[in-house]
Write a structure and sequence with these properties.
The structure is a homodimer of 617-residue chains.
Chain A lengths: L20 H8 L3 E5 L2 E4 L1 H20 L3 E2 L5 E3 L1 H6 L1 H4 L6 E3 L5 E4 L4 H11 L8 E10 L14 E11 L2 H21 L4 E5 L10 E7 L10 E3 L11 H12 L7 E6 L5 E3 L20 E4 L6 H8 L7 E8 L2 E8 L6 H8 L4 E3 L2 H8 L16 E5 L8 E4 L5 E6 L9 E3 L17 E16 L1 H6 L2 E3 L5 E3 L1 E8 H12 E7 L5 E7 L10 E5 L5 H16 L4 E3 L6 H11 L3 E5 L7 E6 L5 E5 H11 L2
Parallel strand pairs in A: 3-7, 11-26, 16-18, 18-21, 28-29, 28-30
Antiparallel strand pairs in A: 1-2, 4-6, 5-6, 7-8, 8-25, 9-10, 10-22, 12-13, 12-22, 14-20, 15-16, 15-17, 19-20, 22-25, 23-24, 26-27, 30-31, 31-32
Helix pairs in contact in A: 1-12, 2-6
C-alpha cells in the first residue's frame, strides 16, 4: 500500500493528555484518534493490527471447536431484567429507549443474550457442549474513562460462552480455553501471566485472569534500540542516561493490578491473592517467662521493636476488624501486612472493615497501640496468619495503654481459633510451590476465563433434559479477551527508545514502536528517499512488487517529504523492517534496517526477498 | 468443522412471521435468529458468509487504494448538531444520554464522523485524495422493521468516504468504486444492475444505486433442482407444477423498487427515472380541421377513444398539478402514464401534487374529464411529454363538460412551453440508448455511490488549502454497501425448490438453499449416514482431512441423527457439494451430489479431492 493513500496522521509531539506511553504513541503515530471521552476511532494502521489479532484468535478458537457468531450490540432490556442485572449493573450500563419507548441497553457483555439464544434453541443434553464466541464492540459508560484504550466507553471484546450438561465438560472446555489463550497471547508476542482470578463479581466459581506484564523500567537495556552510530550502551554518557530515565518516568506505569509471580515456576497471582511457601520450623526454642514491661508513648511495631530492642519478627501485630457486624481479632507477625482480600475471602463475609476505636476499647479495654491477644475474653474470635504459629517468645501489646508483654507464647498465654494465610506476600519470598522466588510486576488484564456454573441458566430458566429426561439448568463458562486494549497492552511491552549519535557527537533519543512481527500492520516499510529520483522510484516499485509476491505486506512511503520526516514517521509507525532506497539505487543496493535490534545492512535488491525471509525466521 | 459443535438450529417448518422466502429460509436453516424486532443474531453459518463477503470487499477496495478503519458506533450528538442532521434526521435516529447527560446517538451513517476526522487531520490539498471505509453495525430505529435482514434496526454496512481537492479527482474515485462494486457483486454471484440513483436525500449530485434483481417467477426451470429420480421437468405432472407455483406465490416478491433495464445494453434505471428511446417522426401528416364534438357522459381516455372510435394513441391526456402553489398543465399521449418523479425533478419543486377540482375549474372552466389545452389563458404554464410533439390531429377535451375537440394540432390550436420526458416507461419499449428493449424487475438495493460534493465539508468547515494557499471546502463522495442485507439479497436469487419422485411414484418438493461457491459457509458437506458404522466414520474423517488439506472448507455432519434428518438439514444449509458416506464405505466409494444441478456421481475417495477440484472450476 502506498503511504500517500493511508490516513496516518503522525504528530510531532506527544499528545498532552496522554498518561501512559502506549496510548501517547498510539495517538502520536497516527494509529488512533479519540472521538469523544473514552471512545476511539481505529485508524487504518490500528485496524490492521486488530484484524491480525482477530485472525490469530479465530485460528486458535477453531482449533478448540469454538464457533464464531455475531449477536447485536443493541439489546432489549427484557433479558437483563430477567437476570436481574438491569437494576444491579449500575451507572456503567448505557440505557436508552426506542421510538416505541421500550427499554434498550448497549451490551457491555452478552451472558443474557447467549443464554436466551441457547435456551430457545437447545433442549437436550445431546446437543451439548456448545462453545460460541463473538468479536464485537462493547459499551460501558465508565465514570472516568482513561489511559486511552485501556479504559474506554466503547471497546472491542472477544466474548465466548460455553454450555454444558455437566461440570466435567465445563472443566474440559475451560482447560481448552486456557491453552488457547496461552497460544494466542504467545503468538501476539506478549509477556503475560495467567493468574488466579477473583471471579466474585461475575458470580463464578473458578476463574483465571491473563495479565500482560508491564515491563520493568530498571533495566534500561530492554528499552533502548541503539543506532549503528553507537557501539554499546556503556558508551552513552550518564547525563543522557539520566535524561532517558527521566523521560521514562514521565509516563505512568500501566496496569490496574500488581502481579506476584514466581521466577522459577508457573505460579502467578494477583498480589491480593498471592501466597508464599510456608514451612513449619522443626527447631525447638525454650519458652521464657511472660513479662510485662512499660512502653510509654510507644505505639507502632517499629517503635516497640526499637524501644525493647527486639526484632520485628519477634513481635505480633494485633488488628481488630468488623466482619458483617462481628468483631474479629487478627494476629500477624510484626513485620507482615494484612491482606484484606484474603481475610474477607476466608471469613466469607460481605463486608469487612477495621473496627472503630470504640469497638476496640469494648473488647480490649485498651486503644490501638497496646493491643494484644493475651487475656482476651473467650468469646472473642482470634484468627492468625500461619506464620504466627511458628514464632515463640513474642512481644505483644498488654491491652493496657503504655504496656507490652514480652515472651508471650501460643497456647500458654493466648489461644488462636484458626491459622490461615492472611499476610501480604513480599517480593523475593518463595513462591507457594517452592519453585522460585516471587517477583512483582504491574499487569494489564487482557483475558479472563470463568466457570459461571448456573448463575444465568437458573435465573433465566435455561434447562436441558438430561439422560433421564429430567430438566437440569445448563452449566456455563464465559471467556473474554479485551481486543482493543490488547493494542495498548502490546505496545506497553513493545515501545522502545531509539538512541543515536549525531555527527556533531550529541546523543539524541526518541520514542519508537517496535511491533511484534505477527501483529505489525505491515511487515516492511519501503522508503524511497527522494521521490523525484526516477531510478529510486522505479526500484522502490520493483521492491514492493517482489516482496508482496514473496508474501510480505509492504507499506511504501511514496510521499514527497524530506527524508528526516519519513524516517521519523517510520520510527513512530514501527514496522519490523525498513528498506531505504537511497543513493545506491542505481547499483540496486538498498539499506535494510531491523527495527528490533537497530542493525542495518546493505543488500542487493535481487537478494532482498531471500534476505528478509532468512531474517524473518 | 464437526456439525455437532455448530449452532445450526434448523426448523421443520417455515417461520410463521416471515414474508419473503430469503428470510424464511435464513431462519429455518438456522442462519439467523431475531433478538428483538428488526435486530438479529447472525449464527455461525451466517457469520461465515458475512466474513467471506467482507473479505471479498476488502480485496477489491484495497485494489482501488481505499483503506479500512473503524470508527465508533456510539457518537456524540455534537457533530450531528453541526451538520444539522440531529434535528432533520427524524425518528429513525436512536438518541441517548450518557451518565453526564450529554447527548449521544447510535450512528446510522458516518458522514459527520469522517468529515470531522479529516477536518482535524488534513489541512493541505497535497494529502488528498483520501479514500477510507469501514464495516460496522449501523442503527436506524425503523418504524416498521420487516422482511428480516432487508429492513432492520441494527444492520451491518460497509460505508466508505472519499475526500478530494477537486471534482476530477472525485470523478475518478467514483468510477473506481463503480468498478469495484461491480467486481464485488459479480464475485458474490449476484444478478445485479447499476442504476441511476436518486441522490436527492443525501444532498448529492451524481449517484448510482446497485440493485440485486429479484428473479422472475414465470420461468420455473430456474427455480427447480431435480433429483436424479426425475429425468426432466416435463415429466412433472401439471398439478404438482401448480402446487409449486402456488408455494412460490405464497412469498412476497422482495425489493423496494421496480427496475427497468435493457435486455441488450447496460442501461438500467429505477422505473421512476427510466426513459425510453425517442425519435421524432419525419413523416408529414396533413392537419385536418379542428372539430368540436359532443361526448356526453364520456370521461376517461378509454371511453373517449371508444365513443369517437379513435385510437388512444391519437388522444391527449390533460393533467393539472399544483407545484409549490403554481398550477401546471401537463400533457401526455392518451395511452401514457405520468411519472410524477420526473415531473417533480423537472420542475425542481419541493412539493408537487394533483390540483383540486376547485383549482382546476378556475383555470379551465370545466371539470376533470373534459380538460384540454385548446384555448387556455396564455399565463397558464403548459408542459408536455416529448411524445406529444409527434402526434397530429389529436382528440382533446374541449374544456366544456360533455365536449371534446377532434383534430387538434400543436401550434395551430394550442401552445406548449416545454417538451420533456414525463411519461412512465413501459416494459418492452426501446431503452433510451436504443441498445435493447426494457424489461422490468423488482430489485433490492445492495449498494449506493454518491458524489456528495461539499454538503458536509461546507456545513462543518472541513477545508484544505489549495495550490494558492486558499482555503477550499473538501469535495466528498460516499459509498455504501448493505452487508447484512446482502445475505437476503443473495438468497432471493439462490433459493431453490428441490423436486424428487418417491419410490411410490409421488412427487415431493421442498425448499433448499444453493449458495454461490465463494460465499457458501463451507464448500463441502460430508455426511456419514450412520455414525455407528466405524468404517464410514473413519472414511468420513479421512475425507475431511484430505479435502481440508486440498484447501476446501468442510462441514461434517457427525450427529447421531437419522439420515433423513441429515439430508433435510443439508438441503436447508445449502452447501455446494454434498458427500455422502454410506453403504459402499468399505469399498471407499462415496456419493457426490452437486447441489446446483442435482447431479450425483459415485467417486472413489482416492479420487475425491481431484474430482471436486475439477467440478469446482
Amino acid at each position: 500500500m502506498k503511504q500517500s493513500k493511508m490516513l496516518i496522521p503522525t504528530l510531532r509531539e506527544m499528545p498532552s493528555d496522554a498518561q501512559v506511553i502506549s496510548h501517547a504513541l498510539l495517538v502520536r503515530a497516527g494509529y488512533v484518534r479519540q472521538v469523544s471521552a473514552g471512545i476511539y476511532a481505529y485508524l487504518p494502521l490500528a485496524n490492521r493490527v486488530l484484524e491480525k489479532f482477530k485472525n490469530i484468535m479465530r485460528e486458535e478458537f477453531e482449533a478448540i471447536g469454538a464457533v464464531e457468531l455475531l449477536a447485536p450490540a443493541l439489546l432489549t432490556a427484557d433479558l437483563w431484567k430477567e437476570s436481574g442485572r438491569y437494576e444491579t449493573y449500575g451507572a456503567d450500563l448505557y440505557k436508552l429507549k426506542n421510538r416505541d419507548a421500550s427499554d434498550f441497553i448497549l451490551g457491555p457483555t452478552h451472558e443474557e443474550t447467549m443464554t436466551a439464544l441457547v435456551r430457545n434453541e437447545i433442549t437436550s443434553y445431546k446437543k451439548l457442549p456448545l462453545n460460541i464466541y463473538q468479536i464485537q464492540p462493547k459499551y460501558r459508560d465508565e465514570k472516568r474513562p482513561r489511559y486511552g484504550l485501556l479504559r474506554g466507553r466503547e471497546f472491542i471484546m472477544k466474548d465466548g460462552y460455553s454450555f454444558h450438561a455437566n461440570y466435567d465438560s465445563l472443566d474440559e472446555t475451560y482447560q481448552d480455553y486456557k491453552h488457547a489463550y496461552e497460544k494466542i497471547f504467545t503468538r501476539a508476542g506478549l509477556d503475560f501471566k495467567g493468574i488466579i482470578g477473583d471471579g466474585g463479581a461475575m458470580g463464578g466459581k473458578d476463574s483465571q485472569e491473563f495479565m500482560a506484564i508491564t515491563p520493568d523500567r530498571t533495566d534500561l537495556s530492554q528499552w533502548l534500540i541503539l543506532d549503528k552510530s553507537i557501539a554499546d550502551i556503556s558508551e552513552i554518557p550518564d547525563f543522557v542516561i539520566k535524561d532517558i530515565k527521566q523521560e521514562l518516568s514521565n509516563w505512568l506505569i500501566a496496569g490496574e493490578d500488581t502481579i506476584a509471580y514466581s521466577d522459577g515456576s508457573d505460579y502467578a497471582a494477583n498480589l491480593e491473592m498471592a501466597s508464599t511457601e510456608f514451612v513449619k520450623p522443626t527447631a525447638y526454642t525454650e519458652q521464657l517467662e511472660l513479662t510485662k514491661v512499660a512502653t510509654p508513648d510507644v505505639k507502632t511495631i517499629e517503635e516497640v521493636s526499637a524501644f525493647l530492642d527486639v526484632p520485628t519478627e519477634q513481635t505480633i501485630k494485633t488488628l481488630v476488624y468488623n466482619a458483617d457486624g462481628e468483631i474479629v481479632v487478627v494476629l500477624l507477625r510484626g513485620d507482615d501486612e494484612l491482606n484484606e482480600v484474603k481475610l474477607t475471602n476466608h471469613l466469607g463475609a460481605d463486608f469487612v472493615e477495621p473496627a472503630t476505636e470504640d469497638e476496640t476499647i469494648k473488647v480490649f479495654g485498651a486503644t490501638f497501640g497496646s493491643l494484644g491477644p493475651v487475656g482476651l475474653p473467650e468469646n472473642v474470635k482470634i484468627i492468625a496468619d500461619r506464620v504466627v504459629e511458628t514464632i515463640v517468645n513474642v512481644t505483644v501489646g498488654a491491652n493496657e495503654d503504655g504496656f507490652h508483654y514480652q515472651n508471650a507464647n501460643l497456647e500458654r498465654d493466648f489461644k488462636v481459633a484458626e491459622f490461615v494465610d492472611l499476610r501480604t506476600a513480599k517480593e523475593g519470598e518463595l513462591a507457594p510451590d517452592g519453585g522460585g522466588h516471587l517477583k512483582f510486576a504491574r499487569g494489564i488484564e487482557i483475558g479472563h476465563i470463568f466457570k459461571l456454573g448456573t448463575r444465568y441458566s437458573e435465573s433465566m430458566g435455561a434447562n436441558v433434559l438430561d439422560e433421564n429426561g429430567k430438566a437440569k439448568p445448563i452449566i456455563m463458562g464465559s471467556y473474554g479477551i479485551g481486543v482493543s486494549r490488547m493494542l495498548s497492552a502490546i505496545l506497553e511491552q513493545f515501545v522502545r527508545i531509539n538512541v543515536e549519535k549525531t555527527f556533531k557527537g550529541d546523543y539524541k533519543f526518541s520514542w519508537s514502536m517496535n511491533f511484534p512481527k505477527d501483529l505489525a500492520p505491515y511487515d516492511v516499510h519501503v522508503i524511497p528517499v527522494n521521490v523525484k529520483d526516477e531510478t529510486a522510484v522505479a526500484l522502490s516499485a520493483e521492491i514492493v512488487e517482489t516482496l508482496t509476491k514473496s508474501g510480505l505486506q509492504v507499506l511504501e512511503d511514496d510521499r514527497a517529504e524530506r527524508v528526516g520526516v519519513k524516517f521519523a514517521d517510520s520510527d513512530l509507525i514501527g514496522l519490523p523492517v525498513r528498506v531505504t532506497v537511497g543513493k545506491k539505487a542505481a547499483d540496486r543496493i538498498v539499506e535494510v534496517k531491523i527495527r528490533a535490534t537497530g542493525d542495518t545492512l546493505e543488500v542487493n535488491v535481487d537478494d532482498l526477498a531471500e534476505t528478509l525471509a532468512i531474517l524473518n525466521q
